[in-house]
Amino acid sequence: MIDRLCDEDGEGDITVAGFYCDFRNQDEQTAANIMGAILKQLVAREGILEYVRTVFEKAKKEFGGRGLRLPDMVQMVKDAIAILPRVFICIDALDECLPKHLLELLGSLKDILQESPTMRIFVTGRPHVEVDIVRYFAGVIIIPIRHGAHEIKRYLEKKLEMDTMCDAMSDDLWGQIY
Amino acid sequence: MDYTTYLHPINTGNSNSYNVTNSHNNIINVNKTVADENPEIMRWLSPLDSRRRHQDVRTNRLDDVGGSLLQTNEFHGWRYGEDGVEEAVLFCYGNPGVGKTFLR
């Protein structure tokens, strides 16, 4: 999705940032850290790094460079998005977040969206996270993803092409797979 | 010219890397400079980084997975619709392994 949005963007009038949640790193994937990872992708845009550096220097002077709290992070993302053309935020596998982090993340995104109505948010997850998403975004557009037979066939073909034991394949076995 | 911000990782020369175009390579250089020249600020913002994971995803992706789903009116409305909070969020759900991560 990230590449699709980027590829379609011939005019350079959108900004895309993304994050992939991973259950193997749940403790570290707090709402603040995820928002920070997204902000890290925005600093390449004109004006954002300068803004972030100002906040950083101020925090360093006042608090000896303490870690960012979620409200500080949300405010920074809001300020960054306000400078940018339409921002797309893509977050994959919400179900792999710890529940408390997920709710804080959804709350933060809602908060940001209310101040930045041009922003677009794309999220994926297993079916059960729909309940939480609807709690925060009543108007969410929902699309179910199912494997089509064609996609399964393409996937198998690709995996078999890369098989290092290609001698094991015969026309007979190939026929049985299909 | 492409000004998109997402940090496109370096092309490793892996023949399975898709869509690594010249314009993306330009972005790599820009982003490497900005992010890599400010490691202290980057660490302060977050210990997490999306870049490596995105490289894995693009390497393993089949380009037409999810293609038909994203031709839907729902996707189009979200992508190109009017500004506003109402239809700002798109949620694609599915069971493990259906290819949500790899949607194009």
Provide structural commentary:
The complex is a heterodimer of chains A (178) and B (104). With 178 residues, chain A is α/β, with parallel strands linked by helices. Chain A has two domains: 2-145, Rossmann fold; 148-178, no CATH class. Helices cover 52% and strands 12% of the residues of chain A. Chain A has a three-stranded parallel β-sheet, sandwiched between helices. In chain A, strand 2 (87-92), helix 5 and strand 3 form a beta-alpha-beta unit. The two termini of chain A are 30 Å apart. The model of chain A has no long low-confidence stretch (mean pLDDT 86). With 104 residues, chain B is mainly alpha-helical. Chain B has two domains: 1-60, no CATH class; 62-104, no CATH class. Chain B contains four helices and one strand; from the N terminus they run ααααβ. Chain B has helices at 22-36, 39-45, 51-60, 73-80, and one strand at 89-93. Chain B is extended and about 45 Å long. Mean pLDDT of chain B is 66; it is low at 1-31. The chains are: A alpha/beta (178), B mainly alpha (104). The interface between A and B is large, with 77 and 65 residues. Strand 4 (141-144) of chain A pairs parallel with strand 1 of chain B.
* Morphology call of chain B: extended
The largest sheet of chain A is: 3 strands, parallel
Tally the beta strands of chain A. 4
User: What's the number of structural domains of chain A?
Assistant: 2
Q: Strand-residue fraction of chain A? A: 5-15%
Largest interface pair: A-B, 77 and 65 residues
Q: Output the strand order for the largest sheet of chain A.
A: 1-2-3
Helix count of chain A equals 8
Count the DSSP helices of chain B.
Answer: 4
